[in-house]
Specification:
The structure holds 3 protein chains of 3 kinds. Chain A is mainly α. Chain A has a domain of 149 residues. In chain A, 80% of the residues lie in helices and 0% in strands. In chain A, helix 1 runs antiparallel to helix 6 and helix 2 runs parallel beside helix 6. The radius of gyration of chain A is 20 Å and the shape is globular. Chain B has one domain. By secondary structure, chain B is an all-alpha fold. In chain B, helix 1 packs across helix 6 and helix 3 runs antiparallel to helix 8. Chain C is mainly α. Chain C is rod-shaped and about 75 Å long. Helices cover 92% and strands 0% of the residues of chain C. Chain C is built from 1 helix and no strands. Classes of the chains: A mainly alpha, B mainly alpha, C mainly alpha. At the A-B interface, helix 4 and helix 5 of A face helix 7, helix 8 and helix 9 of B.
Chain lengths: 221, 223, 49
Amino acid sequence: MKRNALLMLSFILMVAALYLIFIYVPTESKMGVVQRIFYLMVPMGWIAMLAFIVTATGSILYLTKKSDKWDALALSSCEVGVVFTTLALVTGSIWAKPVWGVWWDWGTPRLTSTLILWFIYLAYFLARNLATEEYRGATFAAVAAIIGLADIPIIILATTLWQGLHPPPLIFQEGGLDPKMRFTVLMSVIAFTVLYIVLLRFRISLRQSEAELGTLKELDE
Amino acid sequence: MKFWSKVITIAWKDALSEMRTKETISAVLVFTLLVIVIFNFTFGANQEVMAVVAPGILWTTFVFAGVLSLNRAFIPEKEQGCLEGLMACPVSREVIYTGKVMSNLFFMLIVESIALPIFAFLFNLPFLSPQIIVIAVVTTIGFVTVGTLFSALAVNTKAREMVLPILFLPIVIPILIGAVKASELTLAGQSWNDLALWLQIIVAFNVIFLVVSLLIFDSVIAE
Amino acid sequence: MENGYYLLAAFTAVWAGVFAYLLFLSGRQVRLHQKINAIKQVLKEKESK
């Protein structure tokens, strides 16, 4: 029941966000229609970060409390997160082509740091799947997530200072943004965050079914 | 003081066994030289181009040499069954971690101290300045703090040698950026003040990862 | 509207990605439930013997 309510909320918010993006918000004068990609790119980037923070928090709790439920949270958030991080890279690329003329711009700290984050996400799965025993995989993945979390601020700092090509996109500064645009971005972020929660809960319930299957198999033997 | 004497015992054990065989250091050194030679061929012999790409080459070489050398930190111990012995020692995990960091740092600094003069000689660039040496030392500390942790993790995975670089490389990208930038500035004749920003980032990285690694090393190695 | 294709591409990519992931999850859920039910059946038969 609760899940259905959340699903409905996610659907309503998503329709509202689409309305805002395509009809409500004024077209940006310099960039034209492409600027509307921005309302997708921001939530993607935000969820890429949020999902990793949830993964790392779950990992810390798993290492300290040793309860499988925290591992399930970390794993699920990581899997949903890698989907959104990939989409963040794709939308970032589609944004870069008309705006900067290239599909990939190494001078954009947001793109490059998201790419590094994507590799850290992959490291989580690698550490998990290649461990010699399954219980170790969960611990190893947790270690990879915690180290990754500690690295994120330094990555952002280093990639920002490293580049010299483009100043940070003007739209990220609060002051320079039209109030209607700011409202649309905010709504889009909220809509995708609720979608993230829906997907996360779905993935966690799947993990629980997997655990149930595991115990049933043991019973069978 | 008790802590450090135990740490030094572990580091000394590694140093002794390495001194007997010289396997790791000699292999890593040959690898480093080969990478330098390969970069020379791939980028051509143009002196101007070389001056631009040299810091990048230097740090690419060191990071790959680091992976190679860090892979050897726990694999031989695991293969010869020494890891269980080390675990059975009446010392805390922090001591084992710090000891391993010390020995890895020692090995890598030896390799770098031989490779840097060769770099300076082959590229005809001032790679032996005090700035470059300081950058090399702090960055290497960063490599080994994370590298030792991941190396201990990789030893208990199915594809040991492959796991370490995939975990290690994305994490060290920020200090790699710092090291390359600081080296570029040095070669461009900038003063210490201009390097300070990048050195601070590297040092901050080292401190953060030393603390985090000490805290979680136990879960990597525990049975 | 000359750049409208990029906008279309971005929205298609995001929604295709989200739906592909949803399908993937549902597929896994269906298969898991089938397996769980099959094992439960086997266990029941064992008990009745």
